[in-house]
Structures are given as structure tokens and as C-alpha cells.
Amino acid sequence: MADIRFDLGYALKDGAFYNEAIEQLEIGYEYSPKGSFLIEIAKCYEFKQEYNLACEYFLKAAELWKAEYGLEDEDVVHAASKVYHLATSFKIDLVIPDWIFEEIQ
Q: For the chain, what is the HEC assignment?
């Protein structure tokens, strides 16, 4: 069930149907809480220029993957970089964990 929701959400995102993609990805995440769902949701919000929500979802993915794979994982580093970039570029009022600042520098 989760894989189908992911594939459908991914295809909808690629077709620029962001609201529908978010809906499918959130349902899939409920069945299988994986960081890949969170990243795709974050990308949808980024495309919609809803940077606060994008930043929140990138942060959730980074935290999830950090706990699962550790700080050296490239997906963790990428998600953390997106959090840092969005938060600083768009002056997003978000508490960024210290580990992200340390990882970016």
C-alpha cells in the first residue's frame, strides 16, 4: 500500500499536481514512516513556494534519517543542507538543531 502511494505521489509531483501528491505521500507515510515520503512532501512544498512547510518536512526527514543512519549518511547531509538553506534564505522562524549547523560548517 505504501509503495503504491509513494509511486503515485511521486508521479503527481512530477506532473506538478503538488496538492494531490502531498495527499498521497502523507497517506503512504502513515502506512510506512520513511524519510523518502517526507523528502518528497518537502519538495512539493518547495515547488509551491511554501518554504516554511518545506523546511519543516526536510527537517523531519533529516532527523529521521540521522537516527536511523547517522550523520555521515548523504541523505541526512542533503536534507540538513536544505533545512539550513531554506531557513536562512527565506528567514524562516524555525529552531534549527545544533547538529545541522555543525554538519553544514
A: CHHHHHHHHHHHHHCCCHHHHHHHHHHHHHHCCCHHHHHHHHHHHHHCCCHHHHHHHHHHHHHHHHHHHCCCCHHHHHHHHHHHHHHHHCCCCCCCCHHHHHHHC
Domains, the chain, ranges and CATH?
2-104 (1.25.40.10)
Q: Each residue of 35-71: b (16+ CB within 10 Å) or e?
A: bbbbbbbbbbbbeeebbebbbbbbbbbbbbbbeeeee
Question: Per-residue confidence of the chain (105 residues) as pLDDT tens digits?
Answer: 899 999 999 999 999 999 999 999 999 999 999 999 999 999 999 999 999 999 999 999 999 999 999 999 999 999 999 999 999 999 998 888 999 988 776
pTM: 0.95
Residues 71, 74, 72: CA angle, nearest 5 degrees: 25
